[in-house]
Design goal:
There is one protein chain. The protein has about 500 residues and is α/β, with parallel strands linked by helices. About 45% of the residues lie in helices and about 20% in strands. It contains 23 helices and 19 strands. The strands form four sheets. Strands 1, 2, 3, 4, 5, 6 and 7 form a seven-stranded antiparallel sheet that branches. The model has no long low-confidence stretch (mean pLDDT about 80).
Length: about 500
């Protein structure tokens, strides 16, 4: 078999004409596949084999869909066997997903190798992958996947009824054990977890958009016991239904240290903003009229003066030792999504009943990034870029398109070409400290640089006056661009918009 493999993201929509067999594996995100007049819901673990001579289209939802695409063509001697056995035009679930991901990554790692052993290894990995899918295709050929999709529609229409797994299995005309297993493969959740999530999602809509009583909302989503509804809601969302309703009001008083980017993007003004003695505050957010609280230097009791209704934290905030703040008001801790700022924005939006605002803001960002990408493609095609952070300790090089504060924007959203050192020194990491020797190899065409703080800028001057620094191509060509520290060393929609605007200012 001839084989080509690509890894990438679909951030809005991608469409292509399939000329050979294409194997699509979704590794993250969610979206929709439009294929041969059919529509298929894509989630992590979804897998699809597209036949030649058809148009294929993928649309993303709430951010990017990350996929592997393997293009292959059976050799003439085996073409009939493979084409007869391949489960084409059927949405499959990679099962077990960990093994499927391991096989796809294994092929990707040696996709460009030309030696005989690597070529044999690629074929073996691909054939093992196809064997797994052919085995699943036997299951898919019984229309069980179609039964599960029909069951999902039934649940969405009747989630307010007292549904049980036995009832759903009977409705799908399947054995209970098979139904539960196939449901988990298709959705990634058990039937009861899926129903619970659907009920809580609808409850949030009713709490934020109506003044209905708690008992009425509980009954509407299939939980006639108000106490049980409140308990389930708090376990799922992190706050009680009453607290969630109060948070959805425009005048909610929120303190969310170094997560203000997400609040402001959603139209929520924090009651007090965080700052840091060494770094200052996030000036790019335009919160000049909002009082400041130094999260390391100020007495936590100062926060009580501003009477916050809720303190919103993310799990990585443990480094700031914010436990004392949590005694002042009800607090919520969200899982850290790091580079996946889109998911974090959606998570914050769900806490305040602003999911539609998050969707609109993400769509606007994707449009801005696409326009900027088109401009930069014409202006800096073939030129390389690097991002440096300078402190009193020296230079730090920031990572590639999937890691760190800057890589996903520079090399992902804007599709700029990272200098070879970025890939070599930051494999799977967000950053790498540079030695003087490594710095001397950084012959990127363009360098963006930020200073750790004012002291770092003063002490870093010795590095900027060194012969190694002044020998760099970007320095000699006056293509080194200083950028704001807190907007570039941050995650968030507004932070990333600032990065795009800065890049266009300097390069566009």
């Amino acid at each position: 078999m001839r084989k080509i493999i690509e890894a990438g993201q679909v951030k809005q929509q991608i469409k292509w004409c399939v000329q050979e067999y294409s194997l699509l594996i979704v590794t993250a995100g969610a979206g929709q596949l439009l294929w041969n007049e059919g529509q298929y819901e894509l989630t992590q673990g979804s897998c699809f084999i597209a036949k030649p001579d058809h148009e294929c289209e993928i649309e993303s939802r709430l951010g990017a869909v990350e996929i592997y695409r393997i293009i292959f063509a059976p050799l003439p001697s085996s073409a009939t066997t493979y084409t007869d056995a391949l489960p084409c035009d059927v949405l499959l679930s990679c099962y077990p997903f960990s093994r499927c991901l391991e096989l796809a990554e294994g092929i990707f790692r040696i996709k460009d190798a030309q030696d005989m052993m690597s070529e044999m290894r690629r074929h073996i990995l691909l054939q093992e992958f196809l064997m797994m899918l052919i085995a699943q295709g036997v299951v898919a050929g019984t229309d069980w996947h179609q039964h599960i999709r029909q069951s999902l529609r039934y649940i969405q229409e009747h989630y307010n009824l007292p549904l049980t797994v036995d009832d759903l299995a009977d409705h799908a005309n399947m054995e209970r054990w098979r139904y539960a297993r196939m449901f988990k493969q298709v959705t990634g959740k058990t039937p009861l977890d899926y129903i619970s999530q659907l009920r809580m999602s609808r409850a949030k809509q009713l709490l934020s958009g109506t003044e209905d009583r708690m008992f009425d909302i509980a009954s509407h989503v299939g939980l006639s016991n108000e106490y049980y509804f409140s308990k389930k809601f708090k376990k799922s969302v992190g706050v009680s239904p009453g607290q969630y309703r109060r948070q959805c009001r425009d005048h909610v008083r929120v303190f969310s240290p170094f997560m203000e980017d997400y609040l402001v993007a959603l139209g929520i003004v924090p009651v007090v903003q965080s700052c840091h003695a060494g770094w200052g505050k996030q000036d790019y957010l335009g919160l000049n009229h909002i009082p400041e609280l130094d999260i390391e230097g100020d007495d936590p009791d100062r926060l009580s003066v501003y009477k916050p209704d809720v303190i919103l934290l993310e799990s990585a905030s443990f480094r700031w030792k914010l436990n004392e703040y949590q005694q002042i008001a009800h607090h919520i801790t969200l899982s850290s999504h790091s580079e996946n700022w889109r998911q974090m924005l959606v998570s914050v939006a769900e806490m305040f009943g602003k999911t539609s605002v998050a969707e609109e803001m993400i769509a606007q960002y994707e449009h801005q990034a696409a326009a900027a990408r088109s401009t930069l493609e014409r202006r800096v095609q073939g030129q390389t870029v690097a991002m440096l952070r300078l402190s009193s300790c020296g230079f730090t090089l920031y990572g590639g398109e999937k890691h760190g504060y800057t890589g996903p924007v520079l090399y992902g959203d804007l599709a700029l070409e990272p200098h070879s050192l970025v890939r070599q020194l930051t494999k799977g990491a967000r950053k790498a400290e540079l030695t003087a020797e490594q710095l001397g190899l950084l012959d990127a065409d363009h360098i963006f640089i930020t200073f750790d703080n004012e002291d770092g800028q003063k002490m870093g001057l010795k590095y900027l006056s060194s012969p190694v620094w002044n020998s760099l191509r970007a320095v000699q060509n006056k293509r080194v661009y200083e950028v704001d520290f807190l907007s570039w060393m941050n995650y968030g929609l507004l932070s990333n918009r600032k990065k795009i605007n800065d890049v266009l200012h300097f390069l566009g």
